[in-house]
Q: What sequence folds into this?
């Protein structure tokens, strides 16, 4: 019998070089896994059934690489992609690791640092375009403060706007066809990051010169860190036509960025997120921005990668079962019913609304069986219905 939870190319599952290549280092302990090359990462992901691989510029090409070293790395990586049949749908830039970005990159007080960050991003766009990437994610990990004495936040916002406008123009001039996806996070590595939530970026995008080129990349962990509902953030982005990419992982609320395997901490939240993506027909990459436990060797990293994809596919199947469940369908119909009381006109205008008499006491007595609906959801997830 075929495994119905085996990933296929049409699932569009991707991982970053920095995810499966993570060596398990943390602030209190050294790396536990040896360095693995980008070429070997491609082979590992192909073995696990992934569709694509993404990278920061320096995940692939070290920041101090010479031109000849860069060319060899690119050649070898391209050969590995061809050999194993993987694609590169997204690229991004590292503006947070090097000491030069210790006080921000595109929002730094130093105009020379801002110019260097812009140049570095353009070169990362060049690199991504060489592999056919059409999505460019931007995460401002250092674009924030520990003390607001250092700059006015509105100046930082203006600097970021100018930078993104310039990058859009660069993409247009080079005919790269990029869609930019802005990734929010409330804190870490900075004490506070300027655009802490997906909603903050959705408010920012209409102020850009090319808002049609810019959307968002919500990350599960980044929304859950401060206790937000990631589904609501993703739905707002989708409804605005701005869900250009998504990062899937898991997270305990109120903790540092944990990047756990997708669905491993909050399976019900993961279920409703998967259900939403499948119900609305999201067709972009499903990117797993997560890390294997520090206890694992690279065989364990493969288990981690397979687990991310398998959990998504299990929840996708559960979403189909939920949608088809007759009790759930009947309950949803009951909840949505508008029977009784005055008949509302097909088009409700303010003038028509003023003349309608409502019985609020009757409206307040309508049954809303959400306990039953939620338990039916749990029954489906637990496989007992």
A:
């Amino acid at each position: 019998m075929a495994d119905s939870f085996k990933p296929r190319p049409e699932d569009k599952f991707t991982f970053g070089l920095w995810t499966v290549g993570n060596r398990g280092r943390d602030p209190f302990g050294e790396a536990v896994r040896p360095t693995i090359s980008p070429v070997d990462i491609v082979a590992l992901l192909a073995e696990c059934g992934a569709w694509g691989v993404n990278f920061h510029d320096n995940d692939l090409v070290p920041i101090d690489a010479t031109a000849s070293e860069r060319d060899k790395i690119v050649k070898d990586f391209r050969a590995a992609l061809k050999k194993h049949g993987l694609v590169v749908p997204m690229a991004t830039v590292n503006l947070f690791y090097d000491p030069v970005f210790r006080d921000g990159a595109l929002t730094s007080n130093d105009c020379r640092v801002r110019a260097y960050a812009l140049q570095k991003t353009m070169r990362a766009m060049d690199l991504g375009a060489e592999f056919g990437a059409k999505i460019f994610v931007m995460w401002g990990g250092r674009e924030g403060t520990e003390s607001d004495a250092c700059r006015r936040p509105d100046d930082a916002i203006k600097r970021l706007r100018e930078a993104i406008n310039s990058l859009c123009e660069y993409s247009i001039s080079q005919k790269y066809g990029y869609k930019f996806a802005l990734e929010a996070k409330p804190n870490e590595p900075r004490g506070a990051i300027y655009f802490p939530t997906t909603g903050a970026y959705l408010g920012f995008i209409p102020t850009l010169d090319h808002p049609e080129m810019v959307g968002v990349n919500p990350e599960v962990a980044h929304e859950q860190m401060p206790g937000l509902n990631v589904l609501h953030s993703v739905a707002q982005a989708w409804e605005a036509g701005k869900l250009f990419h998504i990062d899937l992982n898991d997270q305990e609320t109120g903790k540092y960025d944990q990047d756990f395997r997708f669905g491993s901490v909050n399976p019900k939240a993961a279920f409703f997120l998967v259900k939403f993506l499948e119900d609305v027909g999201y067709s972009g990459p499903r990117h797993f921005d997560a890390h294997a436990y520090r206890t694992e060797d690279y065989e364990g990293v493969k288990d981690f990668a397979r687990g991310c994809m398998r959990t998504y596919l299990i929840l996708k199947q559960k979403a189909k079962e939920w949608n088809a469940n007759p009790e759930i369908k009947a309950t949803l119909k009951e909840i949505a019913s508008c029977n009784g009381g005055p008949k509302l006109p097909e088009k409700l205008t303010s003038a028509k609304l003023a003349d309608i008499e409502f019985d609020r006491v009757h409206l307040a007595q309508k049954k809303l069986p959400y306990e039953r609906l939620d338990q039916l959801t749990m029954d489906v997830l637990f496989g007992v219905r």
About this structure: The chain has a mean pLDDT of 96. The chain is about 45% helix and 10% strand. The first strand starts at residue 13 and ends at 16. Residues 298-324 form the longest helix (27 residues).
